Amino acid sequence: MPQNGSRLDAALGRLLDRRLSRNQLRRLTITPEGAADFSSNAYLSLSCQPAVQRAFLARLQTATSGSLLGSGGSRLLDGNSTFATSLEDTIAAFHRAPAGLLFNSAMDANTGLFSCVPQPGDAIVYDELIHASVHDGMRLSRASRIPFAHSRVWERNTEPDSAGKMQSLEAVLTSLLQRPDGSLFASGERSVFVAVEGVYSMDGDVAPLNEIVECVERCLPHRNGYVIVDEAHSTGIFGHRGRGLVCELGLEHRVWARVLGFGKAMGCAGARQYLINYARTLIYTTSMAFPSLASIETTYDFLATGQAEPLLQHLHLLIHETHNLFVTLCSKHKPPNDVLRVNSQVPKSPIIPVFTRHPRSLATYCQARGFM
């Protein structure tokens, strides 16, 4: 055993050394006190708002001594509560969906959804930049998986794509119908799930969701095309009161499912019941404790009552100011594109991509000077 253990340690060490040599080694870090935070996904800083904190503490006071800490077990055993089911109804109503189902994280929601809903013979067509959690779910799925070029919906040229070049959504769906089993997709017997994000977490660009929905409905007129939108980075930012991109565009009845940062508003009540029965990331995990549920309810109440509107306006001011500073910096110093580059177009989301061939050394340089 010791010898085998040492071999394993050596093998793992070599893999870590290889990652270190590529400057790709990940480490857990702690944000220094007083650092300017350009890294967090908490775009509205809701957890820092005194009104949110007071409301959260008040909700904790309503918990009984037995339910405040821990949850007991899986929701299918003794981990469910009327508070959790009521919160799901609140979230679904807020996002104008028939039903909602809470997972412990968006990662669990994506993995559970994509691993169990698509059936053998179905197809998952996904944006090439889709989140890692969707990839994890797809790997567990028994459906086929086909990527399409990032946010490229229509096939606008007449020449065939060169080898290795990613195709548009339209071209992928058309090719799917031309497969030997394509008649099953064309007739609506088999399902096609189209996975996209509302706002992409790396580049911060917004999905052309209207075009995506139109393309799916045109290519699959028998209504067997199901669009799934990960709204983790668009909830709270887009739509009235932060309801998300789907609600902003009025696509609630044309998008089958949404995965959100807190609540998961599913596109139909039947899917909720199916996930309760088959989503392993829901069935075999301990349910959320009361403090987590209370924090979600507090946040949604803050959004629904319009209290977050000043924060959202301030966020847009920060986005424009930060982008202007980046553009001015690049214009003044004219760094080579491989060192530092930003898009000249004003971003539509709080995610402002900074392009460089030296991301980790640049991050280390900024962190040493108080910028996360």
From TrEMBL:
Residues 37-272 form the Aminotransferase class I/classII large domain. One of its GO terms (biological process) is biotin biosynthetic process. It comes from the Eukaryota. Its cofactor is pyridoxal 5'-phosphate. GO terms for molecular function: pyridoxal phosphate binding; transferase activity. It holds the Pfam family Aminotran_1_2. Keywords: Pyridoxal phosphate, Transferase. The keyword Nucleotidyltransferase does not apply. PANTHER family: 8-AMINO-7-OXONONANOATE SYNTHASE (PTHR13693:SF77), CLASS II AMINOTRANSFERASE/8-AMINO-7-OXONONANOATE SYNTHASE (PTHR13693). Belongs to the class-II pyridoxal-phosphate-dependent aminotransferase family. BioF subfamily. This is Aminotransferase class I/classII large domain-containing protein. It comes from Staphylotrichum longicolle.
